[in-house]
């Protein structure tokens, strides 16, 4: 289906108009914070112009933000005809968010300030085969040690977000293959942590958190159609559409790993056939590697569930340095991720795609290249507009950093998730 | 990736809260109209409760709507403790929208009232191989004759929307195979029509228009994740997410026909491989039918580009009445559309999928059944929530009716597209 060029122009104007119409609730506070943050410094007059809100509304919101310590006044702008205007800026150290990426093999804690800067990071052993109760106790201890070590004062901590691929408290009962957190079925992690911690606790999906983090830290425009492809144990996508994290009906949106790339392909535990994960996720790549292990001698691969991430990183490292057999395996995976990325781009008419997750940490550039090449040839709207493919600056910690961003955004506009509110 | 059940609960509350936070601009007018329309009759007090807007805001908006004739007062509600409240209802005949579905083989004109009721319909020969200028002249004549015939007074006509699959004014230059409007490359249809008509003219994509029409006429909740799969010559999807038509970066979102269902499948004119359209669209089905034409004797199939729609309908009719060879062909197509629908549902975590378009007019129930069955077995979030699959009440005219809805919505909240504004 081809759109009309002319209708499109109308719409573009409509989009701009829409962008400036602001919610009357906490959403406008979030937008104000977002505008100040992306501008660096900005005056109240400029905020009025940028939002279409009335001057009294802007004054009220700004006063509240200054009282809360999130925004501060900083000098005056050179007069532009009229009288000089006081400039506003974000008070980066007003609040901190803590993000915890919970995995089988590792747990990462990060703290970020309001500008998204990482002020602390800690990497420890994963949940492994410990019980959920044991892991919860460990997380509480870890959290306390971490915030003390980074030196965050309790009142400045906005909250903590724990992110995981699941199947923590999964909705169904279908289990992802090991190594993963199979014992966490229906365990109320949020509740258990909240009982021990006196800051707000949220639990979220890693791909969604990474998308929010990348959207936030890259200062992506709210009008962009944005997605983050996240490869950890599985493959997921987070989507920020019209400035809002898109979650779908039950927060199950973005299941990129479970879209079929082969209509009659291999069966998947999810019920579908030909799922991307079955061809491209680390477990699939290592299964293929094991089948041709004679070509991979000397790479020190363990071929065991508990060494999956390490093995995949090792294979990726060999691929990046030109090892032919390793390159074949990674390229096969990258081509499949690229095929699914074209599907995602064609359905959502994306402007930007960012790659993140531990699976992208070593050979992310190979994946980015494969996706770029395929989009150049196959993206439906390629003649209408470019699509930018970028690699996360920190693929391994992207979900933890995104989690911390989620918490901060929740604080800035309570109950909404500011820049990301519909 | 599995989401957290617990995070989900928080989010669900957030969603409800969000639903009630209303834009301060024309968006609130649109929401008010939407609430009145879906309630049948409603009081100002109930509108205040439902939106969270202040009483003075509600009074202002309602006064404006009454002045514009879109809403009227109608009797009083039985007192509920307090004093009786005046009820409001939509004045269905205040405005009419005209939708024109422009096709190679046929042109359909419809007029709808504010409630979405069809008040007039006309079917005439399509654009065929006439020049765009000739077709534009014909459309102007057709439009004038149609509104005169239906008896619509000029001031009550909100505007006219022309919808087509393209490649009218396509952005690229890639052509869809015949039979289609190949000569319309870069023709400024909106502008050409606007010069001759004194009502607002818009041009839009058929699948997007159909989605808007189905969303509107079914009174789907704004919190639902909603898509319309539209099969005409090609296959497209319109998506209404968070109450807003999702268009993507360049209005090219929803290219369901050009998602790959076979990673190494047959090449498509769009540049991609294994595109759904190459297996499931009417032209693909008829190509397969021609290859086994000995099994289809007696169905009177023409196997020519200019008889494609008629042939496909004929084959679909035979399939519906149990003709084995015809059934095999339609089932193959339906299974492929179902596979792509699972992809769409998994990426967007859909609540509802509606099938529309001329391609669904005869055998739509076979497509709906195939999609339902596949979703039951393969939809990722199937244990979290149901997904409803419905057939348009009027698949053939769905885009024209949707176009008329688009116009009306544009009138109710100028420059925004009310129920569909982000």
UniProtKB/TrEMBL annotation, chains A, B:
Residues 27-74 form the HTH marR-type domain. Pfam families: MarR_2, ROK. Keywords: Kinase, Transferase. PROSITE patterns: ROK (PS01125). GO terms for molecular function: DNA-binding transcription factor activity; kinase activity. Belongs to the ROK (NagC/XylR) family. This is Putative NBD/HSP70 family sugar kinase. It comes from Plantibacter flavus.
